[in-house]
Amino acid sequence: MPDESSLETGDCAFCDPEATKAYRLYEGRDFYVVADHAPVAEAHLLLIPKQHYPHLAALPPELDEEFHALKAHLGDFVRGHYGRLTYWENGVFGQSVPHAHLHTIAVDLDTTLFERHGDVIDGGIASMRSHWQARGGHYFMVEHKGIGRFMPPDPDLYIRIIRHAKERNGGMWRYAAPERKLHAEPIVAAMIASWFANPALLPASNPLPVDGRSPNSEAAEGAGGGVSPTP
Question: pLDDT by residue (tens digit) across 81-105?
Fold first, then answer.
């Protein structure tokens, strides 16, 4: 079984509570939710474990329940407010921050680009863990319209899907990450306002309360300090 869960955290931005504080929308027992400060779409959220793991397939089983609950709530929010939903993870293949995180993005994809590749994800994070334990190494993950695949680290396929997403969805995709941050403030503020206007979307069973900030908070004002991995 591969074992990368004990990687040195070093200067990992997601291990530093201050690095994402300005964009943090929710904090649970083992995860927090952050608005990407350089989004590729109208809605771009990150689901991040508090403890350092190199990728989602390295998460221990005891985190599965909270992960799936929050993933579902993020998906309901993005799909319900923006009409499009894709989950994406770079999985140490294209990561800009070497700390596990799930992108939840309001983008549309042609599933024929990836449904014939990789391994079927039919058991959520448990399937990803099983595939990774069997194969090891790098991967990326994409899920759209209920079709999820644990993908091999094929740079051509990865770039082809990214290029398709840019062409199909436009918008913030046309900018590189530094430019996205410059143009993103009103988009991020609008998404954060929608988030805090719908507190019912958060799981009531979560052991920590909602942050409680209003859309006029530091997060909604787009203060600095966030980190934006490129999906």
Answer: 999 999 999 987 767 788 999 999 9
Are 162 and 154 within 8 A, CB to CB? no
The whole-number pLDDT of residue 19 equals: 82
The mean pLDDT value for 140-147 works out to: 96
Structure tokens at 34: 């952050």
Distance CA 10, CA 23 (A): 22
Residue 156: Cβ-neighbour burial (10 angstroms; 0-12, 13-18, 19+): exposed
- Indicate the number of domains in the chain: 1
Whole-angstrom distance, CA of residue 57 vs CA of residue 62: 13
Q: Is the pTM of this model over 0.90?
A: no
For 49-75, write each residue's pLDDT tens digit.
Answer: 999 999 999 999 999 999 999 999 999
Helix axes 64-82, 125-135, angle to 10 degrees: 120
Show the domain range for 178.
Answer: 21-197
Residue at 171 is within a domain: yes
- Measured distance CA(97)–CA(89) in Å, rounded: 11
Indicate whether 68 belongs to any domain.
Answer: yes
* CATH classification of the domain holding 111: 3.30.428.10
User: Is residue 15, in this structure, part of any structural domain at all?
Assistant: no
Tokens of 181: 């941050």
Q: Is residue 218 part of a domain?
A: no
d(C-alpha 7, C-alpha 38), whole Å: 26
